[in-house]
Structure formats: structure tokens, C-alpha cells
Amino acid sequence: MPKWLRDGEFKDDIVLSTRVRLARNVKGLPYPNRMTRQSDINRLVGIAKKTFVEHADFEFIDFGKITNIQKWILQEKYLISPQFARRKYAGLILSPDERLSIMIMEEDHFRLQGMMPGFEVEKTFALVDELDNMLAKNADYSFSQKLGYLTACPTNLGTGMRVSVMLNLPALNMTREIGPIVADFESRGLTCRGAFGEGTSPLGDLFQISNEVTLGFSEKEILKAVESATREMIDLEKKAQRTLYEINGRLVEDRIFRSLATLKNARMLSTKEMTSCISYVNMGISLGLIGNLDHERLYSLIIDTRPATMAEKDGKLLPEAQRDERRAELVRRALT
How many structural domains comprise the chain? Predict the structure, then answer.
């Protein structure tokens, strides 16, 4: 189980996690994709170390000294982006509980991230805002009075902030109501993407709501917009669950308990099948049909049984068929 997910307070069982990211750059230095001098990279690393390692209890992970599997594991835990996982230099600053991290030399000089279990928009932002205040004491940010924080990608201009909330939406997906809702959100400057971010399709019934635009809106306005959209989505999912159960309770029960039986008894499980089953079992918990399982244990399986994370436990990366066998074994063990 990733550290950031432990002791998760799922005040609303539909939300898996909340993430807030801030993009920041140092004045006078080229953006990472155009940075060629090692001295510039060393300067960024030095600023981050001085801020978070020397004066706070954070760890520095040098990307020149870890394996590709170790980078992949960090990505599977949602601690770094896929783009950053391909980096061969710079590194990651990580808090002891892994809920706070700073990517050095991703698309921007610094990507400050807060990750928390459940629906915690304000609390997550407060943590990342404190990181920003700490870093600002040692870094002269690239900033424009007209455009706000200057970033490598124009879509991040302004606050440089992305707020993302990951939700489990089996009923809305099952009734195909999710399509029109996603279109409506996009018309309001929000996106609803797959569980693993931009460019991906949903894995099972996991969707991620985030703000699309950062320029022209204050941090408070962005937080409010994402929080409001998330609450709206939660209400719609709960309504869809109740309606489905009232109209065809046997079908819903069959889907839920068939999924539970698969998780407890399958000898081979792909990530897609496992995640889909977990979505329905979580719905069973929400409807009060299953009382001996908790969301934290189920959600942790989505990360604990991904390829690189399993490779760390087993000492090697298994072929796909063997991974499916190993995944099924780990899930059975976790649910007994």
C-alpha cells in the first residue's frame, strides 16, 4: 500500500484521491526541455535541497542513481508523471509520508505536488501552498503581472495550478450517463479523463476530474470549481446507484457479488478486470450490501498489483501471463 493512502479517511466513499500540483520556474533559466548546462540543473537541485532536505525532513531521490523499475514504481504510486519517469537526470524530493513531493526538471523547473486519500481539496491545497511558500524563499520565480506564473506550457500560465480528484463511478458508467456529464464539464473549463491522466482512457470505472485552464482564475476560484464539480459528480453517482438498485436490484446484486467472487477466487486477473471488479465491490459497500471490506484495502490493490510494484516484491518483472497469476494471488490473499 502506498504511504499516502494509509489511514485514509474516506469521508465520501466515491472519491479515491485528491491531488494538487503547482508549476514553478526560476527567472532567467531556460525551461527543462531546452536546458543543456549541468550547472543550471545543479542550481535547481541545490535550491530544492536547501529548501526541503536541509530545513525539512524530506528525502532527495537522484534519478541518475535509481533504476527504471524504481521510477516506474513512483509513477504507479502517482508520485510522478509518466513524462518525469523517463527523465535520466535531476530528481524527486519526497516527504516521509509521500503525500508531498517536488519534481525537479519535469516540464517545468519545479512541480510541487500534494496527494491525499479521499475528498480533501482544501486540505491538499493548504499543504502544497506551504511548499510553495517555502520554495519561494530560495527561488526567484518567473512571474508576470499580466500573465501570472510563467510556465513551459501556455495552458499552465496564471496560477500554474492543477487540481485533480479521482472518483469511482460504476453506476454512471453502467447507465452510460457519464458521456453527457463529461461534455457538460468540458463546457465549464473542466476535464474528466481516465484514471491515469491525460491521454488515457478510464481504467475500470475510475475517472479524474481536473481544471483545464489556470489563466484568468484565482486559486480560490479553481479550487471552488473543482470541488463543486466533484460534489455534483458524487451526487449523480449516488443517485444513479440508488436508481439502478430500485429498478433492477437483482442485476446490481449479481454484478456486485459476481465481482467479489472473482476477486476472491480468480487464478488469473488482468489489471482491467481487477479494477472493474473493485469498482462494483466498492459500490456494494456504498449500498450497504457488503460490510466486511473497506475502501482503503480495495483501492490499495489497484496500486499494489501494478507491474513494477509487483516486480519490486518479487525481485523481477514477470511476463504478462505470470503477472496476471501473481496479481490474482495477491488479491485473494488481501481479501481473505
Answer: 2
